[in-house]
Amino acid sequence: MNSYGLINCLVQSVGGCIAVILGGVLGDVFEKKTKMAKAYVAIIGSIIGIPMMAGCSYFADMPFYWSMLFSALEFIVSEGWMASTITMM
Question: pLDDT averaged over the chain?
Fold first, then answer.
């Protein structure tokens, strides 16, 4: 159980940092093409995160580390909404 805490800490801290920076950069780059770009970053990231969370949660016969990999991928793709949403406010 100790490995879960360490891996979850790394997923949330490193994955969260990558997600917020990447979401902010994507929102800024595509804002030149459409004013809805920041909203699209949040929407598309959330939609892409659905299969990642399914991979993390619903495949019971999958090893623990694969589940944590899906959790990290879900965190990276779906947490990019923060920078864009705060900027839109």
Answer: 87
Its domain, for residue 42, covers 32-89
Q: How far apart are CA 20 and CA 61, in angstroms?
A: 32
% of residues, the chain, pLDDT over 90: 26
Q: Name 57's Cβ contacts closer than 8 Å, sequence gap at least 6.
A: 67
Residue 36 lies in a domain: yes
pTM of the predicted structure, to 2 decimals? 0.80
What local confidence, expressed as pLDDT, does residue 1 receive?
Answer: 58
For the chain, give the number of residues: 89
C-beta separation of 73 from 19 below 8 A: no
Tell me, yes or no, whether 40 lies in a domain. Answer: yes
For 44-75, b/e burial (b = at least 16 CB within 10 A) is ebeeebeebeebbeeeeeeeeeebbbbbbbbb
